[in-house]
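INFO  loader      accepted 1 record
INFO  loader      residues=344
INFO  predictor   begin
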Amino acid sequence: MRATVIYGAGDVRVETVPDPKLVEPTDVILRVVRSCICGSDLWPYADMAPSEHGRRIGHEFLGIVEETGADVTTVKKGDLAIAPFVWSDNTCVFCREGLQTSCLHGGFWGAKGVDGGQGEAVRVPQADGTLVPVPHTGDDALLASLLTLSDVFPTGHHAATKARVTRGQNVTVIGDGAVGLSAVLAAKRLGAERIVLMGRHRARTDLGREFGATDVVAERGEEGIEKVRELTGGEGTHAVLECVGTKAAFEMAIGAVRPGGAVSRVGVPQYEEGPIGPAVFRRNVTVTGGVAPARHYIPELLPDVLEGRYQPGRVFDRAIDVEGVPDGYRAMADREALKVLIKP
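INFO  predictor   done
INFO  writer      dumping tokens
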């Protein structure tokens, strides 16, 4: 089969690799019908050290069950199923607490002999705990929205949930990428009254307004913080959802949050130290966030997607086939595309 392999910064290739085979009785072979490129994939694309053998990549996909191991009971051949971006047994102590990203028997796609998601098929370990079956559909828009449930929509929801966003609150979202726009949608869904989107790309912030943003702040740094405070009577917002992962974005989040508020980080941090000293302490600011347990949130979010109340799949603005994946990476890295969908 054909699959994506990354060899280093800027070096993504599509190669012929061995077809996946069942290894454990808890495995499933999934034929991928939709996958995509994630903003977090751009970090290794930007700075991964060169590798002689490369590694598989991709962690957002949904597909058709082709084969099932002897112990699999929750899905059957022919089912359409969503694969969250972390595989898990969904039964260990952490999974039962809704933290499948810390599953004692789980792991990440493209690591330790497990297929990456940007390819024609994937061996899914712990299939009963990982996969979420969904109704079959030929609707491209619905398939795109279902695909976002593998990562970006639950990640935006995680940001809002961890920040305790509730009805009537003011929220700032930092970042106009797919996760940031999903966070806008999530904050709107939870009833936020004012949603300030900090972003500088007009096409993206226009979509953010359609998703529920009431204000857009293009300024960055201290100027951006001051603009958010102007919009909120000098107070700042109850919650700030940081969806970028840079230290500068975290610093803006700390500056924009009101006393007693929460900063929720879901952008993968590209730094080791940040502003968490006395100024944060004195203002009683909560710093939270982390890796989103998508598997935990899918059952909650799925009905709204199936019934069309929310359409997170609108974040996809380019579609390619598997052979076009290297150009898809380039387009996202060059900000020519917001989020690239991969389809057969």
